TrEMBL record:
Protein origin, superkingdom: Bacteria
SUPFAM superfamilies: RmlC-like cupins
PANTHER family registered for this protein in UniProt: PROTEIN VES
Protein name from the UniProt record: HutD-family protein
InterPro entries xrefs: RmlC-like_jellyroll, RmlC_Cupin_sf, Uncharacterised_HutD/Ves
Length: 194
């Protein structure tokens, strides 16, 4: 097990693919040997972003996306013939980057967390940890993000405190046990497909 505490000052900021806003890149991975780290070389990305006005989502062919509101409420994603309901915070929705999505804000601006992965390169999961209790983590990369105040977790018997806005990046070579001790955390899990 390898752990790295990522603090907000470690994060980078980049424009949305469509230029409509700015996201905070918390952690990502790109293809080995790629000449540049861009959308074409992206394997996965864990990021947060404010959505302050209704508008279109970026077109991201070949990318699978998970999203969760962590601040505010009332977000609805509209796609042709479909609706993704994120009105309540900490609800995860899954969609593909090819969908033509327009946001609807029913109660003002929100902040969301996104976990994106290149289809076929990685499997991803995104969930909110709001109650104590053990859960198994598979081998892979896991990101424990303190989205709404500090939190603490226990990982294979070792305690970790994560300050507000920080992320504990955990690299696991084998199955491990995670427990939320206090606070609320967002857990993003990535397994690279060989």
């Amino acid at each position: 097990m390898k752990t790295t505490l990522l603090k907000p000052e470690d994060y980078t900021r980049s424009p949305w693919k469509n230029g409509g806003g700015i996201f905070t890149d918390i952690a990502d991975a790109h293809r080995a040997g790629a000449p540049t780290k861009d959308w074409n070389s992206l394997l996965w990305r864990f990021a947060s972003t404010p959505i302050v006005t209704p508008g279109p989502f970026s077109y991201m062919p070949g990318i699978d996306r998970l999203q969760m509101v962590v601040r505010g409420r009332g977000l609805v994603l509209k796609a042709p013939g479909r609706e993704f309901d994120e009105r309540d915070p900490f609800t995860t929705v899954r969609f593909t980057g090819e969908l033509e999505i327009v946001t609807e804000l029913e109660a003002g601006p929100v902040e969301v967390v996104n976990l994106m992965a290149r289809r076929g390169a990685a499997e991803i999961e995104l969930l909110a940890l709001m109650e104590s209790g053990d859960r198994q983590l598979a081998a892979g990369t896991h990101l424990v993000y303190a989205a709404c105040g500090g939190c603490s977790i226990r990982l294979d018997g070792e305690d970790f405190a994560i300050t507000d806005g920080s992320t504990l990046r955990v690299e696991l070579a084998e199955v491990s046990k995670l427990a939320l001790v206090s606070g609320l955390a967002v857990l993003g899990s990535i397994q690279i497909v060989s």
